Amino acid sequence: MLENIQRTTAYIKSRIGDFEPEAGIILGTGLGGLVNEIEVEKQLMYSNIPDFPVSTLEFHSGKLIFGTLGGVKVVAMQGRLHYYEGYSMQQITFPVRVLKALGIKTLYVSNASGALNPAFKKGDLMIIEDHINMQPQNPLTGRNNEELGPRFPDMSQPYRIDLISKALNIASANNIICHKGVYVAVTGPNLETRAEYRYLRIIGGDAVGMSTVPEVIVARHMDLPVFAISVLTDEGWPEDLKPVSLDEILEVAAAAEPKMTLILKELIAANN
Questions:
Q1: Which pTM value belongs to this model?
Q2: If we measure between CA atoms, which residue out of 30, 185, 208, 17 comes closest to residue 92?
Q3: What's the CATH code of the domain at 28?
């Protein structure tokens, strides 16, 4: 893996010159609009980058965007990889390894997820303060490379407390409804049954989704600070569960995306 990371990083650096990103951003389903706020300097298609997995989802464009956001040099992943696409955990988290090798100091992650907490409504935002991993594999399984991180990384505080506090203050100052809560990662791609929603709520989940946690595990393995935020695109109330379509999820995500963009833009500027 280390050789692959080095080869991929060398290729990217040959295309971006002396550009050195300070922050890395992963944009989730329906949340690619943040790139419109970036003063873009370079764009690279995943398909042109050696060893880089390519998103199989039509609504994930699959680009690395290099530019400036709020005066900070950033690299944004417009489109992420998911375990349900058939990739291994090591493959879907490989881009995070590369972003760290490119020099980022903090990773900012976004996703679309379903609300489990009855106090949360679709269209709201939720900052992730902790997570529960229900996915069947772990990206750290296998031989550990001490150059990347320790065999048994600590996960007592996977999400930076100070960034959570700053983000909540930004949301409050801009009259944005923004909660904090626990994110449960499942495999997907199907949505959950009534019984599954009930179970996930009972074990402590406030929102459920199909991404993010593997990327966070790998980031923390490399001692890379993380901030993560969810757009709540549907509601998983077992007593009143209604069918939901991808079009509805994308519509809610698009409507909430400007609020998420504002928080991320101001947070990144304040943290650098």
A1: 0.95
A2: 185
A3: 3.40.50.1580
Series of mean pLDDT values for 10-residue runs along the chain (272 residues): 94 96 90 87 94 73 90 93 93 97 97 95 96 97 96 97 98 97 96 94 97 98 98 86 85 91 94 80
Domain range for 195 is: 2-270
Long-range contacts of 11-17 (CB under 8 A, 24+ apart): 11/49, 11/50, 12/44, 12/49, 12/64, 12/98, 12/102, 13/102, 15/42, 15/44, 16/41, 16/42, 16/44, 16/66
Asked whether the beta carbons of 135 and 83 are under 8 A apart, the reply is yes
Q: How many domains does one find in the chain?
A: 1
Alpha carbon distance 159, 155 (integer Å): 9
